[in-house]
Design goal:
CATH superfamily: Protein tyrosine phosphatase superfamily
Number of helices: 4
CATH topology: Protein-Tyrosine Phosphatase, Chain A
Distance between the termini: 34 Å
Helix content: 25-40%
Oligomer: single chain
Shape: globular
Strand order of the largest sheet: 1-4-2-3
Number of domains: 1
Structural class: alpha/beta
Largest sheet: 4 strands, parallel
CATH architecture: Alpha-Beta Complex
Length: about 150
């Protein structure tokens, strides 16, 4: 089986009954974590709470290098466990989760349902921090609007 990464809205992720070789990365706003009702059968789960923003705002949580490291470490662990499917969800399934899914596809070789192009809308800050953290901080690429 080809390894796959899927990104969904929270509602759809909550409907998934995972196989034993599936894992989930659950992304929520910090104040909304208690609203996430994932199936209890997920064996492998990473929960991260941050807002869908790309610059710091008072009272909001910005995705950072520590969170990126958690995703990278989680993925390395999932690869060692031969996990075939990674599900990534956020509230709408279009910005934060799409950025994480694109990173997992680009850097870990998991296939997305369809290729995610850079000019599509997703949280570029999340992707850039993941990329920078994965490369040990030596890679800093800034992409403008395409």
């Amino acid at each position: 089986m080809k390894k796959q990464v899927h990104f969904f809205a929270q509602y759809y992720a909550e409907q998934v009954d995972p196989a034993s070789n599936w894992a989930v990365i659950s992304i929520s706003d910090p104040t909304m974590r208690k609203e996430v009702k994932l199936n209890p059968n997920w064996r492998y789960k990473l929960e991260l709470d941050f807002h869908d923003i790309d610059t710091e705002f008072k009272g909001f949580t910005l995705f950072n290098n520590d969170m990126a490291k958690q995703i990278i470490d989680f993925m390395q662990d999932m690869i060692s466990k031969d996990i075939d499917v990674i599900v990534v969800h956020c509230w709408a399934g279009q910005s934060r989760s799409k950025a994480v899914a694109k990173f997992i596809s680009d850097y870990f070789g998991y296939l997305t349902t369809y290729p995610i192009r850079w000019d599509e809308p997703f949280n570029k800050h999340v992707y850039n921090i993941l990329q920078e953290t994965y490369s040990g901080g030596s890679l800093k690429i800034q992409y403008g609007n395409i």
